[in-house]
Request: fold
Amino acid sequence: MSITVNLYYTGKNGSARCFAEEMERSGTADEIRREKGNLRYEYFFPMNHKETVLLIDSWENQESIDNHHSSHMMEKIAYLREKYDLHVRAERFVSEELPQKDKGFLR
Reply:
């Protein structure tokens, strides 16, 4: 059972995109991807919300998330959130096996 958190970073004048670009350029995102238990750490840009960046952040379990939250990575992320004056909204999902009848909709 994995846990996925969708984080919506919203700012002004392109600041959310600048945040994501700095996370990637600085290597911080790659460091997080290498943390034990990280399954996915990927940024997306919603078409209908130009001032928002979506981060899909998936972990093996709650322990992995807790370890990430207590790591030095959180200081870097907090610094950049402040630098770019971002507001964050989160959604949390726990995975389950896709029902067989739903698999027919996949290609």
Summary: Helices lie at 15-25, 28-33, 62-69, 73-83, 100-103.
